[in-house]
Each structure stands twice: as C-alpha cells, then as structure tokens.
C-alpha cells in the first residue's frame, strides 16, 4: 500500500501588506519554490484560517484585533493546494454572522473543506473524514473560548469541553485508522506550554488521538512523543503578517509533514521563515532550540526537578510580555497613565504600574482569577453590564 502524506501549516490569513499577491494568485511569490513543492507532494494539505474572508465590514464588539481578508485573496491559497481548513479559532467570528456566511461561501466555491465551526450550537462541524489507499483518516478541530461561542441561533466554533471532546474522540477513533486533533489555544507569545495544556493533550491522546497539535500561540513550542502519539505544542505562524515588525518570535513557524505507512506514521517538522510580506522554507532548518526545549520538556515529565524549574522559569519570562496590558486593564481608564504610556519606555511604565498595586491588591486579583466561583460570576456581571450599556 502506498504511503499517505499529510501537510499541516499553522496560522494563515492574508494581510493588507500582501493582499495583492494573494488576490493575484501569486503562490510562488508568497511561499517560494521549496514550500510549493512540499505542499504539491502531499495527498492532503491543511491550515488554520485565522480570521474570515469577507468583503463586508461587520466587526463584532471585542477587545483586540478584528481580522478579515477580501474574498479574492483565497486565490493564492487555492493555488498552493490547501484543501482543508480549520476554522475553530479565536478570530473566525470577528465579523459576526455575515463574516461566517461569507467565509463558508468563499471556501465552498473554491473547493476548500472547512471544519471546526457551524451554524449554531447544535450543528457544529467538528471533524472531517478522509480516505486514501484504504486508510481512514479523521481531522478534528476544537478551540478554547474567546468571542467565538455559538448560540441557539448564531454561528460559532467547537469549544473545548474535556468530557465531551474526549468522548467524541474515543468514538471517532473506533471509526478510523488515524486521528489528528487541531487544538486552538495556549498562551500567545510563548515558546512554552502550560500544565493545563499538557494535561489536555495527554487526555486527548489517551482517548484515541494519534497527533495533537496547537495553533494560536504564534510561536514554536515543543514536541513530545507520548505513548504512541505525537504532540506538538505550538506550530507558530505560517503566513500571518498581522504585525509589521518581524520580531524573532513571529519570524518563524513549523509546517508538519505526516507520513502514514503500513507500520504506523512519522511526523517531521519543517521550519519556515517570515520575511516582510511572505514566508519561505528555511534552507538551514535551524531547529536546535526547538529540540532543546523539547528535551527539557521531556525531562520535566520524567520528574527532573531542575528541568521543571528551568521550563517554568522560561515560561514565566515569556508570559511577562502580558503584564503591562493586564495592569493597565485592571486600573481602568486613567488619563494620567495614558499620558505616561506615551512618555515612558515599556520597562519604566511597567515599574510605575507595579508601584500602584500594593501586595494585598495583587493577592485579591489573583484570587479572582484562580477561584472558579469568582471567575464565573465576574464573566456574568461584566456581560450584564455590557448589555446595559448597549
């Protein structure tokens, strides 16, 4: 029986800087010959569309970026050969129901099969089934909750609920030979996974997943060989030029090549590099840091105390970039701080904000975030306040 090759790319969405190239179908200019050849060699090609395809302007009310691309930009994606797309992510609902409808129509018209979302809470398309050389393959997409929850009469994504998801995976595994889970979640901007994420990946693998990989973090994480499953904590970006500056974190990603054969499967990551407008194959395949992090991760799981301390320390350092934003949000609108934000350097602003938070206040905030009761009631009260202000 011939082998089956699956290529999986990370976050992809055309941006203003390269709308023209996407709309003109310039796949070779966007991805280079080596990447185009890699995709052409596969039987199935999958990526995550981090946004929606629409020519309308119907942004939802949210904090953070609203991401969309003109429907014409799908041309280069089709030319690259992408034939399956995950849409259970943090930005697919950014333009509401109209954005959802436009995206579904655009992908359907271009022969790209989507999954991970649906018309309402009862009709989520969680997975797709593929067949090649007699092999039965299932792709399953699930995401953490953001501004993307489905309603009784409104579209949304397949949200992670551990009991339900693991039950579904167990049932799907009985129907197939190979099961891939696309999990959209984790901490943005970090190379390291959390204990929560590790536990979720292990449980999904325990319930039948052969491969579990995460997108959303926009950074390359670690790999783990868990029992007979392959786990990839963070693929990084594929072609996602949301920010104009090319930081080291955003300048790389992984394309995962899965090769199914009669004896099982192999999983091979390929490093890609982002430039000003495009992304290309890394000829040097500089993956030493990725493999070193993965070794530390494995040692952590083996109970190595020093490895655990190193991993958690590095994870905390990566998460540090969120601190200033959190403190500013907790303070509320403050004209004086808004002025200082323009005058002070990022490190000076951080130190100033920390001086405004006495230890008991930080303890109270931590309690609200850790306590499930307070977390739930906080979400309820803030939702009710937003309704009052409509």
Q: Bin the strand percentage.
A: 25-35%
Shape: globular
DSSP strand count = 19
Mean pLDDT: 93
Biggest sheet record: 8 strands, mixed
Low-pLDDT segments, ≥5 res: none
Q: How many structural domains in the coordinates?
A: 2
What does this structure look like?
- The protein has 390 residues and is an alpha/beta fold.
- It has two domains: 4-302, Purple Acid Phosphatase, chain A, domain 2; 320-388, no CATH class.
- Helix content is 38%, strand content 26%.
- It has 13 helices and 19 strands.
- Strands 1, 2, 5, 6, 16, 17, 18 and 19 form an eight-stranded mixed sheet that branches. A six-stranded mixed sheet has the order 9-10-12-13-15-14.
- A hairpin with a 2-residue loop joins β9 (127-132) and β10 (135-143).
- α2 (27-40) packs parallel to α3 (74-80) and α9 crosses α11 (346-355).
- The protein is globular and about 65 Å long.
- The mean pLDDT is 93.
Characteristic key phrases:
single chain, alpha/beta, Purple Acid Phosphatase, chain A, domain 2, eight-stranded mixed sheet, six-stranded mixed sheet
């Amino acid at each position: 029986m011939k082998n089956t090759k699956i290529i999986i790319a990370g976050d992809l969405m055309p941006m203003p800087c390269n709308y023209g190239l996407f709309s003109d179908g310039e796949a070779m200019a966007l991805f280079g010959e080596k990447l185009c050849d890699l995709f052409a060699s596969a039987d199935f090609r999958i990526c995550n569309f981090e946004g929606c395809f629409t020519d309308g302007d119907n942004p939802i009310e949210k904090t953070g970026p609203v991401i969309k691309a003109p429907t014409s930009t799908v041309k280069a994606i089709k030319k690259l050969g992408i034939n399956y797309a995950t849409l259970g992510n943090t930005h697919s609902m950014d333009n509401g129901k109209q954005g959802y409808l436009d995206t579904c129509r655009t992908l359907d018209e271009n022969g790209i099969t989507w999954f991970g979302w649906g018309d309402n809470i009862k009709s989520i398309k969680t997975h797709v089934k593929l067949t090649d050389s007699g092999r039965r393959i299932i792709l399953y997409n699930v995401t953490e909750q953001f501004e993307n929850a489905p309603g009784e009469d409104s579209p949304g994504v397949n949200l992670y609920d551990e009991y339900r998801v693991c039950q579904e995976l167990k049932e799907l595994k009985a129907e197939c030979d190979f099961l891939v889970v696309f999990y959209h979640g984790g901490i943005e901007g970090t190379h390291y996974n959390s204990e929560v994420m590790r536990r979720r990946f292990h449980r999904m693998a325990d319930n039948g997943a052969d491969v579990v990989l995460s997108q959303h973090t926009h950074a390359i994480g670690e790999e783990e060989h868990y029992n007979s499953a392959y786990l990839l904590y963070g693929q990084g970006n594929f072609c996602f030029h949301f920010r104009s500056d090319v930081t080291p974190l955003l300048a790389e990603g992984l394309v995962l090549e899965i090769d199914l054969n009669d004896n099982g499967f192999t999983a091979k990551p390929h490093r890609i590099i982002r430039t000003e407008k495009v992304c290309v194959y890394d000829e040097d395949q500089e993956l030493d840091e990725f493999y070193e992090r993965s070794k530390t991760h494995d040692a952590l799981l083996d109970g190595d105390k020093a490895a655990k301390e190193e991993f958690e320390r590095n994870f905390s350092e990566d998460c540090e970039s969120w601190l200033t934003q959190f403190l500013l949000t907790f303070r509320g609108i403050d004209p004086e701080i808004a002025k200082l934000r323009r005058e002070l350097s990022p490190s000076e602003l951080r130190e100033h904000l920390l001086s405004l938070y006495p230890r008991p206040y930080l303890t109270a905030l931590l309690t609200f975030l850790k306590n499930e009761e307070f977390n739930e009631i906080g979400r309820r009260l803030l939702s009710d306040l937003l309704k009052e202000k409509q």
